[in-house]
């Protein structure tokens, strides 16, 4: 059981983050924000996969002008990502964005930050102070080097500005390309402030490398109870970020609304096409949003024991196989019947879950 830090609560659109609320999954669009049709299309795909808050880049005036329509049509809260030109943050707030992300490394002087804070205070919009190891203010780097301390002091400077202005709807992030640097920075910040944090490892890389780096860095922090929202940064279709995030959280007991498929690593005892079955089952359950753990085992030797922690499972053989419920043999079937029988059982559990959920309404 993970004991999460009880931080200050902040409202982002219709999503409450911080406190003891669930860890919220975020992503960022890769489209040109001024292309409203394509951006909205991507947001809807992300939402369908499980994204709860989405960030969009605001690089120019065309992007800023598109925010009004995007905010109206988006199924999830939109965060405006602001760099260099603070005036775009003002336009984003007027457009109704649910959160403004500013980067202390390039937002400019104190007056720029004050202008953004005053606007967000007026509109009751939270601000994320997004520290990035690759764009730290020069004075911080000169004093502390490229270190977690430099990240913390940069964050401190801007938090103090916001607090001086009576603004406390703050979220912070301390992203670094090095997971160890990010871990140290987030741990330091967690000891100093009680604001919710957005976790991420920046420039993590491709699907494989990015998943490994993010799982290590974010997994460790989440285990320590740190983090209210997360993004798995990948150089891929952003939908992959949501898939990885859900599985990371699920593996830690922090995300229940998904079907988890576990399978044995295979060995010389394997007597049926386990990999093929696993892929087919994963495809079959991809759009089912309910808690279920399915075990697919390659033989009957360890089947009962290895499937005991799953809700349902199968173990195959060269002539037939067995189906389990909570590690107990439920049925023996021919090999060609294993997959159809498992699919029927999955839908049986899904319908039971739906009926229970409907009765609770």
UniProtKB/TrEMBL annotation:
Gene3D superfamilies: Dihydropteroate synthase-like, Sulfite Reductase Hemoprotein, domain 1. Pfam families: GcpE (PF04551), GcpE_C (PF26540). Keywords: 4Fe-4S, Iron, Iron-sulfur, Isoprene biosynthesis, Metal-binding, Oxidoreductase. It is an enzyme of class 1 (oxidoreductase). Binds 1 [4Fe-4S] cluster. [4Fe-4S] cluster binds at residues 264, 267, 299, 306. Pathway: Isoprenoid biosynthesis; isopentenyl diphosphate biosynthesis via DXP pathway; isopentenyl diphosphate from 1-deoxy-D-xylulose 5-phosphate: step 5/6. Its EC number is 1.17.7.3. Its cofactor is [4Fe-4S] cluster. It catalyses: (2E)-4-hydroxy-3-methylbut-2-enyl diphosphate + oxidized [flavodoxin] + H2O + 2 H(+) = 2-C-methyl-D-erythritol 2,4-cyclic diphosphate + reduced [flavodoxin]. It comes from the Bacteria. Converts 2C-methyl-D-erythritol 2,4-cyclodiphosphate (ME-2,4cPP) into 1-hydroxy-2-methyl-2-(E)-butenyl 4-diphosphate. Belongs to the IspG family. PANTHER family: 4-HYDROXY-3-METHYLBUT-2-EN-1-YL DIPHOSPHATE SYNTHASE, 4-HYDROXY-3-METHYLBUT-2-EN-1-YL DIPHOSPHATE SYNTHASE (FERREDOXIN), CHLOROPLASTIC. This is 4-hydroxy-3-methylbut-2-en-1-yl diphosphate synthase (flavodoxin). It comes from Spiroplasma corruscae.
